[in-house]
Design a protein that fits this description.
CATH topology of one domain in chain B: MetI-like fold
Number of helices of chain B: 11
Number of helices of chain C: 11
CATH superfamily of one domain in chain B: MetI-like
CATH architecture of one domain in chain B: Orthogonal Bundle
Largest interface: A-B, 30 and 22 residues
Distance between the termini of chain B: 30 Å
Largest sheet of chain C: 5 strands, mixed
Number of strands of chain B: 2
CATH class of the largest domain in chain C: Alpha Beta
Oligomer: heterotrimer
Order of helices and strands of chain C: HHEEEEHEHEHEEEHEHEHEEHHH
Distance between the termini of chain C: 44 Å
Helix content of chain B: over 70%
Helix content of chain C: 40-55%
Structural class of chain B: mainly alpha
Strand order of the largest sheet of chain B: 1-2
Strand content of chain B: under 5%
Chains: A alpha/beta, B mainly alpha, C alpha/beta
Number of domains of chain C: 2
Shape of chain B: globular
CATH class of one domain in chain B: Mainly Alpha
CATH superfamily of the largest domain in chain C: Periplasmic binding protein-like II
Strand content of chain C: 15-25%
Radius of gyration of chain C: 20 Å
CATH topology of the largest domain in chain C: D-Maltodextrin-Binding Protein, domain 2
Number of strands of chain C: 13
């Protein structure tokens, strides 16, 4: 079976800064991969390359069988199959929760409002806040906003979900409600790439952990071996820092 | 005259000049011309300004550069100079001939006002100048929306045009209602400069009343009250707009700045 | 503003002139000193101005010279002409307090000013006229009905235009330069101000021959010399000097020298003005 996402010797620069160095990585359908590493290691940039929020300078990224560097790629169509959840939620402030969720299904997929709302209501149910449908983002807590954001991404019925530090901006008491939704999603077989420092989630839910530093994949492995017996010094150092607190 | 009054030299107020014939009629004509000029110029400023503001935030380099040059040029040169430019220089760009002559000597009575080149030049000058200011305001409004908002919308599969249509424009335009209200107020006040190219708006008629009656203080007071009334009306209207289109929980400050 | 300023100046003048007014007449003073002290302008072309050779000359100064010559003849001794610079603000007070014996420049005789000082008969006559492009077909005020005519806002010329040709579409300008540019560009068919100023505008144009000043005066701007109040001997003396010039034809030579086709500002004398000048001269 073909990989859901495949990085082939990907290089990327921001000006003179070499942020991704020769990345080669394949993620299989149904796989849940956690990407971790110190800040500035390139992990966010890595997943932003998957839906082409960032262009790359050399190598190739193949998503759902589609090479992103080949000419004439329909990025809009690609992105509708790859959901993304951001650290800062980024809900549309002038729309309530329901309107946030139905926008893309209606405008991109051409669903009627009724069809889109049916999906939206079901998704709000699934993320545990059906009663918040009519609320505007400014009136929701951070955890609730992030759950709406996940529902918004799922409304497009994506084949892949990307999470860019989804719990970093949350107060501690709200982190779990978001992680629970993500865990359920993983159990249902969604292909997920999650940039996070939540090592508990990584241990319990992920199939594989990728450790990045200075734009390179330093080490990858199953959670049990990754935490128990890290091979690289840099991984050890990182884990010692992150697992202390 | 005003100075004389303040300095204690005898000055007798004669408020009746404001409604005596023909002076009251003159002032009303001026008021009407001020309103017509300002509203039409505002329509031009909005249309051009919105296009400019959006182009300046768009990822297409050449249109963005052109829009930026336009905005910087018209925003940073005095309106008075621009009015003279439109009135005296622009028609001369045309080759000498019947078309140019027709533009220069245009004089068409319409039910609303006399359509002449003084009016057209004032309209173009005021509209284009304000469009640069509106463009700048729109740009600032759109760019005050976090970049990730666009990325979130793009990553859901929306095209860039759709992102503008459904996210950036609705949010950005609501953010800029207060500064836009200020621009709208300014266009009425700036319209008084049209007197310099012979357009008979309210300041012009005030000067006419003064030169015929030597009752400058009364005429200036009337003009001041007219401008004040226009400003307060707009401020109230824009305040309602702001409340009506407020983003829940985000913009609930009220009060148009002026 | 102008009105209140003139009230203020009048008060000042009355205070300053109270004492010496009774002392001696102007003719007695000139007889005693041998000097004619005259005020005139320095940039009122071509009435009194300083040219590029730094000479202080002009139509009004020629007239002052004629007054000096007549004084020499009458008093039988050499008289020196001492010219002092005046401005529109200073010319009336300086005559009123007898610092200068008379002022000849480009001063309009108005009844308001006559309250404070005296005026001689008119040595020059102008008034509102039309500046048009040659070949426009416009000859009189009647010809501009329904046409666009320019004027400077707030001037007496604008008021006269609106009053006497209500069918003209009046377009106003901030200054004469803007008005002339509009005429040049065809925005208006005629521009209105004092005829002599129109002639001056045309003289400065790129091609002065393309323009002409037309029409009878539809407002009056008579220029006179200012002399001190209540010294009729002196006023008569200056008036008679002018009458002699008119009678001898020398006045018309002087006019032609400055305002003729080869003059500094081409403003040929109309038949209306010629008649008026001749009528001003009283029999001997």
């Amino acid at each position: 079976m073909a990989a859901a996402i495949e990085f082939k010797q990907v290089n990327k620069w921001f000006g003179k800064l070499h942020v991704l160095r020769d990345i080669t990585l394949a993620i299989q359908p149904g796989e849940v991969v956690v990407v971790c590493g110190p800040s500035g290691s390139g992990k966010s940039t890595l997943i932003r390359c998957v839906n082409r929020l960032e262009p790359i300078q050399s190598g190739d990224v193949v998503v759902l069988g589609q090479s992103l560097t080949s000419p004439g790629v329909n990025f809009s169509q690609l992105r509708s199959q790859v959901g993304m959840v951001f650290q800062a939620f980024n809900l549309y402030p002038h729309m309530n929760a329901l309107e946030n969720i139905v926008l893309a299904p209606m405008k991109v997929k051409g669903l009627s409002r009724a069809e889109a709302e049916k999906i939206a209501v079901a998704l709000l149910e699934r993320v545990g806040i059906p009663e918040k449908a009519g609320q505007y983002p400014a009136h929701l807590s951070g955890g609730q906003q992030q759950r709406v954001a996940i529902a918004r991404a799922l409304a497009m019925q994506p084949k892949i979900m990307l999470f860019d530090e989804p719990t970093s901006a949350l107060d501690p008491e709200m982190i779990n409600e978001v992680l629970e939704v993500m865990t359920d999603l993983a159990r249902e077989g969604m292909t997920m790439v999650v940039v996070t420092h939540e090592m508990g989630f990584a241990k319990r839910v992920s199939h594989r952990i990728v450790f990045m530093d200075e734009g390179q994949v330093v080490e990858e492995g199953k959670p049990e071996t990754f935490f128990a017996a890290p091979r690289s010094e840099r991984t050890k150092l990182f884990l010692s820092k992150i697992l202390v607190h | 005259m005003m100075l004389a009054g303040i300095l204690g030299l005898q000055y007798e107020f004669r408020w009746s000049v404001l409604w005596e014939s023909p002076y009251g009629y003159w002032l009303l004509q001026g008021f009407k011309n001020t309103i017509v000029l300002s509203l039409l110029a505002w329509a031009i400023a909005l249309l051009l300004g919105i296009a400019l503001g959006l182009l300046r935030t768009a990822p297409w380099r050449l249109p963005r550069a052109i829009a930026t040059a336009y905005v910087e040029f018209f925003r940073n040169t005095p309106l008075l100079v621009q009015l003279f430019f439109w009135y005296f220089a622009v028609p001369q760009i045309l080759p000498a001939g019947p078309v140019r002559d027709a533009i220069n000597s245009l004089n068409l009575d319409t039910p609303i006002l006399t359509l002449n080149f003084e009016f057209l030049a004032a309209l173009a000058g005021l509209g284009v100048y304000t469009s640069a200011r509106v463009g700048e305001t729109i740009r600032a409004g759109i760019q005050s929306i976090p970049r990730q908002q666009t990325e979130a919308a793009l990553s859901s599969g929306l095209s860039l045009i759709q992102v503008y249509r459904h996210v950036l424009i609705p949010v950005g335009f609501r953010i800029v209602i207060p500064p836009m209200a200020t621009e709208f107020l300014s266009i009425f006040k700036n319209s008084s400069l049209a007197v310099t190219i012979g357009f008979a708006e309210v300041t012009f008629q005030t000067q006419q009343v003064n030169s015929y009656t030597f009752k400058g203080l009364e005429a200036v007071t009337a003009a001041t009250l007219i401008y004040l009334a226009i400003s307060l009306t707009i401020a109230a209207f824009m305040n309602r707009m702001e409340h009506r289109y407020a983003i829940p929980g985000l913009i609930a400050r009220g009060a148009v700045r002026e | 503003m102008r009105k209140s300023l003139s009230v203020f100046l009048t008060v000042l003048v009355m205070l300053a002139s109270a004492a010496p007014a009774l002392a001696e007449t102007v003719l007695e003073k000139i007889t005693r000193t041998g000097v004619l002290t005259a005020g005139t302008r320095t940039a009122s072309i071509p009435f009194a101005f300083i040219n590029e050779k730094n000479e202080w000359i002009g139509f009004s100064i020629d007239f002052l010279e004629a007054v000096r010559a007549r004084l020499e003849k009458k008093l039988g001794k050499p008289i020196k002409l001492d010219k002092k610079e005046v401005t529109p603000q200073t010319r009336i007070p300086l005559v009123a307090n007898r610092t200068i014996d008379l002022e000849c420049g480009s001063t309009t005789y108005t009844r308001g000013r006559d309250e404070t000082v005296d005026f001689t008969i008119n040595f020059f006559f102008t008034g509102s006229q039309l500046l048009v492009k040659k070949g426009s077909g416009i000859k009189t005020l009647a010809d501009v009905a329904g046409k666009r005519v320019g004027a400077t806002q707030g001037t007496t010329n604008e008021k006269a235009l609106r009053a006497q040709q209500p069918r003209a579409d009046v377009v106003t300008f901030m200054d004469h330069a803007a008005g002339f540019l509009a005429l040049e560009q065809g925005k208006i068919v005629a521009y209105v101000t004092d005829g002599i100023l129109l002639a001056g505008l045309a003289a400065k144009a790129r091609s002065p021959k393309d323009y002409e000043v037309v029409g009878d005066f539809f407002s009056k701007d008579p220029y006179s010399c200012i002399v001190p109040e209540n010294d009729s001997k002196w006023r008569d003396f200056v008036n008679h000097a002018l009458m002699e010039l008119i009678d001898s034809g020398k006045y018309f030579e002087m006019y032609d020298k400055w305002f003729g086709e080869k003059g500094v500002v081409a403003y040929p004398m109309s038949a209306q003005v010629r008649n008026y000048m001749l009528m001003q001269s009283m029999p001997e």
